[in-house]
Amino acid sequence: MLSAKSLFQEILDDDESFALFCSIAADGESQGGWENGRIAALVPDSERRLAPRITRHGADEDKHGRIFNALIKKRGLDPVEVPPETDYTMLLERHGIGLSHDKLKGEERLTVQDIITYLAHSRVTEQRASEQMDLLRRHFADHPDIGRAVKMISNDEDNHLAYCHEELLRFARAGHGRAIQRTLRECALAEIRIYRDVSLAVMAHMGRILGWPRTRSALLAAGIHAVYAYERLAGWRRMVSLRMPERRDALGGPAAAAPEYA
User: Which pLDDT score, from 0 to 100, does residue 261 have?
Assistant: First the structure.
């Protein structure tokens, strides 16, 4: 029977598909680390209290990138080039979601609206990351090779999501509620479309590597399109709601160390 667990297990069991999966993940996390590092450096003076938390966010993302690369090396493999159509982070940036890399490469201080845009973008993408890692944690927390990494990264993603909720609610109380909701909606609707396209591209590459028959590839593609249809209709709303998290000040301390093999 085709299930999320069996699908991931098949990808993990094959060296080539495992290397591609981890390379895609590592590349996205590393890009996120760079973006957060630049945002922390450019935070406006009125929001300097956020700089350590943004720095922690970036440190976590860098750590995740190192972990995925370490998993590749532990298997005796090398990272592979990430196909551009599978580069979720760069595709979001190219479609104007979040802060542009041109802005982040400059030296001009960001505005409060820029910080709201960053937090809204992060709230949407961290929702996706938290859900994906929760899925992997439920199925592979005890896996001898990736279990420790999955549990650590999943916990970090939950912290990131909690941080976004808390800070966006703070900005909403300060009078930015309408701008936040508008930005969240724009980000969510763009993210679900890009996530669909990236998912189709990743599955196409995995199908070629693993020799999936056309019927299986077509079934997986239909499932991805069905998820998008649901998210376009109503599912995107889970990405724009805000509630005070149980984890308060989730990024208030130093980043946890990566597993020893990383």
Answer: 53
